[in-house]
Write a structure and sequence with these properties.
single chain, alpha+beta, Tetrahydropterin Synthase, Chain A, 3 domains, four-stranded antiparallel β-sheet, 6 helices
Amino acid sequence: MAKKEINKVITYDGNNEELFKRFSVTDLPADAKIIVPETHNAILLKDGMMMDTLNSGSYDIFDSKKKKHDPNITVEVIYMSKTAKLKVNWGTRTQFDLRDTETDVPIKVGAHGEFEVQICNPRKAYLELIGVKGNFNVDELKERLSMRMMSKIEPAIAQTMREKNLSYDRMSEHKDEIAQSVLKVLSKMFEEEYGLRMFSFTLANVLISPESIQAIENARQAKKQKAEEEKKKLEDEKREEAAKAEAERLDDKNWEREQYLLELKQKDYAKYLEVCKIIGWEPKEGGSKSTGRYCPNCGRPYGQNDKFCMGCGKQLGDVKKVCPNCKKENPSDAMFCAGCGTKL
């Protein structure tokens, strides 16, 4: 520990495992010195006022040139290690409220672990953490760091979960990944605000209530079902659109066919019947097959006693009967086809 030696020199003779060590002394001579080892920095205070931040070396405590010396002045020296690391346990005292990033379900989460820090800015560390009271010790510093860190750990965990799109019921699977992300956030905060460098941060355990896990699972199933329903709806819509397009294509094709047959019927009725038979198209004039009589001008069928065509008005004469089966022409008074025997 630090001590006042007989040779009027204040030095540090402790080990380098302590983050800081504080002591005070009075009744020092005017030529008293302080020695700071290579492993430490030091904060010098006189009657509670911070005077200097000292690097390793030997320093006069009083200004001998100005001959200002009061033996009743209380001198405080706080040695701060350059290399010692302080391990601090942390943990949530109560579960904090969050929303699951995947399902947006409100949940409660608790966690605990540890982190390790080292002093990198002695003056800031003293002003913000160590110099709160005269007998402040390492255990109190651990408690103070743990409490201050908790105001940052909850939003840091939530931010990491959002950025990585991790569901809270899988936090245990990603503890190391989460810890490394949180370490970056906390390191910056500790160095800027407290003069401490954070070397490690661990997430030892995560506590999520069974009710929260079940709520996440239920929401996940509902989300999956909704996605499947939307997928099926989309597929049905695509099938309906395809069927509609096919129907429109067939309608266009049928319209073209009807136009062709209509023109053929007017020009060559016998060929029209032949084409209808080949393609399986039923002629729209049902009586054409039974009479076998067709206007030689327009091809419209007519009855036995008709004198004029109802299609073009031309006078009907002695025309041939065309067999509806084999298409052979027969005399107008023929009762049966001479080619196949079909009744005319």
